Amino acid sequence: MAEINHFEYGWITPALSYALSVLGSILGLVCAGRIRRAQTNGQRAWWGLLSAWALGGTAIWAMHFMAMLGFAVENTRIRYDVPLTVASTAIAVVAVGIGLAIVGTGRLNAVRLIAGGIFTGAGVASMHYTGMAAMRLNGSLDYDTVRVVLSVVIAVVASTVALWLAMTVRRGLAIFASALVMGVAVNGMHFTGMSALSVHRHERAGEVTGAGVSTLLVPIMLAVIFGVVGLLYALLAAPTDDDRAAAAYLDGRRVAEPAAATPVAAPDPVGLRARSTLGQPGTPFPSRRDTPPR
């Protein structure tokens, strides 16, 4: 059995993985808070997609591979199968997106929350072990069943709590505190699953094929950076409740201008107006019938 080191570079990789999970959780919670306040189905789908990418893509998947930078096995190189690595990304984002769709439509209740948490937790665990299956090294991977089950339970509980927080937390300080808790849960699930792993080296050293960690690191970091920048831009560009309230107030104050009133002639009981215009060009001479009797 080969010796495994989960912290090859010391505290830097777990610290960065925790920071990524907290950052993704903050952005995901903020985006998820817009789902129930959205006024159209298109807006709900948009904020759900952004929240799924923040939680699934940054808080879970990017955190996983940042932690894997510190993973090493003695006397063997580690490579990654690129298609399986990409598949693990899709699993994380889709699982979180479906979980948000379950709890974000209709009235939030225990049944919806538990169903969404189970589905999302299973997806998170699938992402983790798919990412582990993408590893290529000179040996075979074995897992302790009890710890694998424990990691899945942690993933389901963490996902349920995350979905509940996503639908209920609104204030800035509460979102930050919730993201700290979610970061602990996500990292706890990851390292519990990693503790279940054991590697049996092969006697004959063969050629290890696949992409190296340094090769994957650049696209992963670029995806995280552009994803975070895009999420921040979407949040800053979207109108807030105060903006909508101000627009409604201004619309309420806009009153249509009244139409010009038709002039009303003053009463002329003795025909003074007719006498004053008598003799002017274009004024007809009064007939005998129009002349008042003497």
From TrEMBL:
Transmembrane region(s): 15-33, 45-72, 84-103, 110-128, 148-166, 173-191, 211-236
Keyword vocabulary terms for this entry: Membrane, Transmembrane, Transmembrane helix
InterPro entries, A to Z: MHYT_dom
Top-rank lineage group of the source organism: Bacteria
Ranges of Low complexity composition bias in the record: 259-270
MHYT domain segment(s): 9-200
Region annotation (Disordered) ranges: 259-294
PANTHER family noted in UniProt: DOMAIN SIGNALLING PROTEIN, PUTATIVE (AFU_ORTHOLOGUE AFUA_5G11310)-RELATED
Protein name in the entry: Signal protein
Species per Swiss-Prot/TrEMBL record: Micromonospora zamorensis
